[in-house]
Amino acid sequence: MIDPITVNNISVSYDGNEVVKDVSFSFGAGSLIGVLGPNGAGKSTLMKAMLGLIHKDQGDVKFGSKTVDSMRKQIAYVPQRSNIDWNFPIIVKDTVLLGTYPKIGLLRRPRKADKEWAMECLKQVGMESFANRQIGELSGGQQQRVFLARALAQKADYFFLDEPFVGIDVSSEEIIIGILREMQAEGKVIFVVHHDLSKVKKYFDGLILINKELIDAGPTSKVFQSDNMAKAYNREFMIDGLEVSM
Q1: Where is the ABC transporter domain (predicted)?
Q2: Which residues pair with 77 in a beta bridge?
């Protein structure tokens, strides 16, 4: 059974400016969670703080009773495409194979079974025919699918994706959300920093809505309400015919 993830009072600041303030929430197994908020709200910062990739002023994250450091092998992270060096000389199948390293160790050579698993992950995202292509030669959607395949190769229980749908084609987006739903059905916990509000109700069963501070967190039906959205975005919002203005 995959343990719930609980965030307690996370705060993060840069150069004395608080960018995430006292955020707490909890989600259980089988959750597909959208992280929403306007530009500069601290969405990516919150995700990185949860993973221990940046310094926190305060707060902690628990996977059941375990810390993030003890759960590294069970956590897969897909950063924003803009943060990746696409000129790095590596082919697609080797990129995916990197996902097996947390389990086999950096000093061990991948076995035949590891290579076969990497190819299976490429097949899951429909990219097996691109196995020998340089990663930089792919379109944005193809690159995102390869990095999802790398995450799948980890055989993780917790997945964190930062803006996976930005700048990609419709077909790739449909493939990616389909795989995320399959993982959710297997009990995985998936966090997705997301910006397209028109697809929130279709994609996610849970939401975290922030603008530096937490506006609300929980089931999508509870969080994705006009008054919450108006607070977060500081403008009028209409959801299901209900309009709220600030």
Answers
A1: 5-237
A2: 160
Instruction: Return d(Cα 34, Cα 119) in angstroms, integer.
Output: 29
Strands 17-27 and 31-36, how do they pair? unpaired
Which tens digit of pLDDT belongs to each residue from 53-79?
999 999 999 999 999 999 999 999 999
Tell me whether strands 75-78 and 158-162 are parallel, antiparallel or unpaired: parallel
Structure pTM?
0.91
**Number of domains, the chain:** 1
pLDDT tens profile 203-226: 999 999 999 999 999 999 999 999
Q: What's the whole-number mean pLDDT along residues 228-244?
A: 74
Q: Is 20 exposed, middle or buried (0-12, 13-18, 19+ CB in 10 A)?
A: buried
Torsions phi, psi for 133 (to 5 deg): -85, 150
The amino acid at 93: K
Q: Which DSSP state fits 54?
A: S
Decide if 207 contacts 36 (C-beta within 8 A): yes
Q: The domain containing residue 27 runs over which residues?
A: 5-244
Alpha-carbon separation of residue 39 from 35, 113, 137, 171, 194 (angstroms): 12, 43, 29, 26, 11
Q: Which two tokens stand for residue 132?
A: 């020998």
CATH number of the domain encompassing residue 63:
3.40.50.300
